[in-house]
Design a protein that fits this description.
There is one protein chain. By secondary structure, the chain is α/β, with parallel strands linked by helices. The chain has two domains: 220 residues, inorganic pyrophosphatase (n-terminal core); 102 residues, Roll (Diaminopimelate Epimerase, Chain A, domain 1), CATH 3.10.310. Helix content is 42%, strand content 17%. The chain has 14 helices and ten strands. Strands 2-1-3-4-5 form a five-stranded parallel sheet. A hairpin with a 2-residue loop joins strand 6 and strand 7. Helix 1 packs across helix 4 and helix 5 crosses helix 6. Bound molecules: manganese (II) ion. The site of manganese (II) ion has 6 residues, from loops.
Length: 343
């Protein structure tokens, strides 16, 4: 399986014009950013220039905005990391490689110029950073980039995730340094302004977690400030009492920070017999963003499908069976509340 990911990536890359830069689109969390940094650094070693475009709050890789942004630029193709498993070119006519580990929303198989690398069928399911590390290793020696793989593993799955790559990275770099780097890298995307530029820059510049944390490279102060902002918002939201509706526990907040997943995760362990929904009315104007978590053996993606309002689209009910959520427009949120018996 591991060889397949790397070798398939390498084969797909052969269809990219080496005279033009590769556009790497990646998610804004620790897994997506470390995958983006891995791709850029590995592509460089293989003789391909690359530009990284972080796809952030309210954006999609497959959107008019991204198409317009890249239509006039001379890129050779796209590598799309941690942004969902979708068998579609970003720009028609240019090769696209999709690397992802989320539950595919619909049948997603490679065809023509589109190569889909999904880790979802693997056991255990890898992170996008681990898949990117396999791709990097197929292109060029990449042992020195293992720490980037570990940043994504710890970011998505915690530092006990059962992967030999993580065990090796902990020996080389220490679990403490990796965890500290992850908490800083994850901070900017949760702030009200969401400027993850410094996080990506640090992942591109540093050569280990300790080097990233050393202050030798620019951007660390911005990450510390971001972490403080998120910490203060989280502490305030932790004081909000959940309301119970049948199997559901609902916590509603109003914060510009993306703290609803952290709040859902906190209550998940305290309310072990509930499906926890943490909803944020202040994250994006006109929308309610929510995170769903549960300690019960329930498939949240299937459950959310059952109670979906008619306006639910690709922003709703994706992710993983045990960690889902989404975004709904205000009208749809009202219907959703009725559907779960909360209104
Ligand atoms: Mn991920």
């Amino acid at each position: 399986m591991a060889m397949d990911t790397g070798e398939t990536f390498k084969a797909a890359l052969a269809g990219f014009d080496p005279g033009r830069p590769v556009a790497v689109l990646c998610h804004n969390d620790a897994d997506g950013l470390s995958a983006g940094a891995l791709f850029k650094r590995a592509l460089g070693r293989a003789g391909h220039d690359a530009v990284v475009r972080v796809v952030g709050r309210g954006e999609s890789a497959w959107s008019e905005e991204i198409r317009a942004e890249f239509a006039g630029r001379e890129v050779s193709g796209f590598v799309v990391g941690d942004l969902g498993t979708r068998a579609e070119a970003v720009l028609p006519g240019l090769p696209t490689v999709v690397v992802d580990h989320h539950v595919p929303r619909r049948a997603a198989e490679s065809f023509g110029d589109v190569t889909v690398l999904s880790g979802y069928a693997e056991d255990p399911v890898p992170t996008t950073s681990l898949m990117a590390y396999r791709c990097a290793s197929a292109l060029a020696p990449s042992d020195d980039l293992l720490w980037l793989c570990a940043v994504g593993l710890v970011g998505d799955l915690g530092d006990k995730a059962p992967f030999p790559e993580l065990a090796a990275a902990k020996k080389l770099y220490t679990a403490t340094a990796i965890r500290d780097a992850v908490s800083l890298i994850n901070a900017p995307r949760r702030t009200a302004t969401g400027d993850y530029g410094p996080a990506l820059d640090l992942l591109l510049a540093a050569d280990s977690p300790k080097d990233l944390l050393s202050g030798r490279h620019p951007g660390l102060d911005a990450l510390h400030a971001a972490r403080e902002e998120v910490k203060a918002a989280t502490e305030a939201a932790k004081k909000i009492a959940p309301r119970m509706f049948g199997d559901f526990a609902l916590i509603e907040m109003d914060s510009g920070c993306q703290i609803h997943p952290l709040i859902a995760q906190t209550w998940r362990m305290r309310l072990k017999d509930k499906v926890v929904l943490a909803a944020n009315h202040g994250y994006r104007v006109g929308w309610v963003h929510f995170a769903a978590r549960t300690a019960l053996p329930r498939n949240l993606i299937a459950l959310l499908r059952e109670v979906a309002p008619p306006g639910a689209d690709d922003n709703y009910g994706g992710g993983h069976e045990q960690a889902s959520g989404g975004a709904l427009r205000l009208d749809d949120w009202a219907v959703f509340l009725r559907n779960i018996g909360a209104a």
